[in-house]
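W.,

You were right to be curious about this one. When I first looked at the sequence I had no strong expectations either way, so I just let the prediction run and decided to look at it fresh. Below is the sequence, 176 residues in total, followed by the output.
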Amino acid sequence: MSELIKRLYRAKLVPAILSIAFGIALIIARQSAMEVVVKIAAGMLIACGVGCVLVYLFGPIKDSSQFIVGGILALIGFLAWFNSGFVVGLFPIIAGIVLLLNGMSNLATLNMPDVEGGNRVLIVIFSVLMIAGGIFILCRPAAIEGALMVYIGIGYLVNGIFDLILLYRAKTILMN
């Protein structure tokens, strides 16, 4: 049992603490934290793109799509690196589009034969709320940006706390 507890702690403790730290960072320093996340993602894109190009140049198989994809990934990475504020500003727009499309696709499920009457009402209510939320976010993305980062930060914080509680509960149960 103690080996199981050790493996569980190794698997969950560090991600839980990082989740809490990232959540707090997003809540406190929304813009700065998101710019750091964008720079990390941009660095990963650059590394992946350069790797693809190097594999094309020095690898045994010459597939031109590797070169093209690598170049595009590296270019996107460089653009994101030097325009991280712009990329962060896209997050609310993407969230608004996702909400809008999700609400519309949920409404499209109303025609399915296995959707029952009570479920239809819930689908309509939540779909209309998602569509309205998406439109609101798209109309005022700058005003929503800060709130969106806080909500994401709260999500990470709660996730990390629940993981720590899970670890404590699992340790208590397995020790008895």
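Here's what jumped out at me. The mean pLDDT is 84. And, maybe more interesting for your project: The longest helix spans residues 141-175.

Coffee later to discuss?

I.
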